[in-house]
Amino acid sequence: YYERARALKGLRDEELLELARQDIVKAYQLAPDNADVILEYARFSIDEQDTSNAQLLLQTGLQLHPDNGTFYYLLATIAIEEENFKRAMELVTEGMERSPDTVELLWKRAELHLVDNEIDKVREAIEEMRAKNFDRVWCDYMEARIFLKEEKWLPAVKLLEDVRPQLVIRQPRLAIRVDSQLSTCFSNLKMWD
Questions:
Q1: Which of 33, 79, 102, 116 could cross-link 88 (Cys pair, CB 3.0–4.6 Å)?
Q2: Helices (H) and strands (E) in the chain, counts
Q3: Is 13 helix (H, G, I), strand (E, B) or coil?
């Protein structure tokens, strides 16, 4: 059920997504202690905007698998979406202590430093992510976000245009945000077209 749910979710068809959702619920019923199943079910819940169920699943998963950094990462993601940045940083810090090899936590830390305008710390996190072979697209996107903060519109446009196609494939929900960021750049560069 778990494998089929993951495969169907990637197809982005409404009927198949419902089947995938049913499969992940069934997988969770059959293996409620399995970290991968809990994480996938939590991701489904997040995608469906059911953050209370996602948080419950992730807290349960964290109790069962306290050294799995992905639980911290997803909980921090929810905290950021709820604008609870202090809680998000606590989760990232604890997660990095328990699971220092979870590179996604570096991404979250960089995001939180960006929110606090701690640009040097964001750059350090990007360097660390690159050193750990974190996906170049995400590193470049974070760098573009630094350029946006610094109002360096042309370098931001170049990076955003470069990474947008890959980001949208990986996380379709980002399309609106990246397009808005590009629009801001074009407006400031007076490039209306």
A1: 79
A2: 11, 0
A3: coil
